[in-house]
Design goal:
Layout: H1 2-23, H2 30-46, H3 50-53, E1 57-63, E2 67-68, H4 69-81, E3 89-91, E4 96-100, E5 103-113, E6 116-127, E7 130-139
Parallel strand pairs: 1-7
Antiparallel strand pairs: 1-2, 3-5, 4-5, 5-6, 6-7
Length: 141
């Protein structure tokens, strides 16, 4: 009788463990999340919604050509009011996403507009589980 009870408890535990493993969703990988965030960010940039675009930028953002996050926002606001963002095209089709631990790089990102064309390298870090752009380096513009 005890053997049957013991066997029943073991089978019940095995069933619970198997059910728990089968029903636990893993979720998207970091690569998939960064790819989705990249697409979202491009769509927001193309819509010229500067305030929303800033939600993709980390507080410690740095760009050698422009400066920190506040300077980047000011640059974009001025470019938008001056019409420089009209017709801007951002192309990530040739970009490669590389993830190493808690950092990611998306490059090269092609940028074209009335100002000319160039390439950008975007680096991102995971901040409290959210990927945010913390560096941008632009060449050719």
């Amino acid at each position: 009788m005890k053997a049957i009870q013991y066997l029943s408890v073991c089978l019940m535990l095995a069933l619970l463990v198997a059910t728990g493993c089968a029903s636990t969703a893993k979720g998207p990988s970091d690569f998939e999340v960064v790819q989705a965030k990249t697409s979202e960010c491009v769509a927001v940039a193309n819509s010229k919604d500067i305030e929303r675009l800033m939600t993709y930028i980390a507080e410690d953002f740095e760009c050698p050509q422009i400066g920190d996050k506040a300077s980047f926002k000011e640059f974009l606001d001025n470019a938008k009011s001056g019409g420089m963002l009209d017709g801007v095209e951002i192309d990530t089709s040739g970009a490669t996403t590389t993830i190493t631990g808690e950092t990611a790089e998306v490059a090269p990102v092609e940028i074209r507009g009335s100002f000319g064309s160039g390439r950008a390298v975007f680096s991102a870090v995971k901040v409290k589980g959210v990927w945010l752009i913390n560096e941008m380096d632009i060449s050719g513009i």
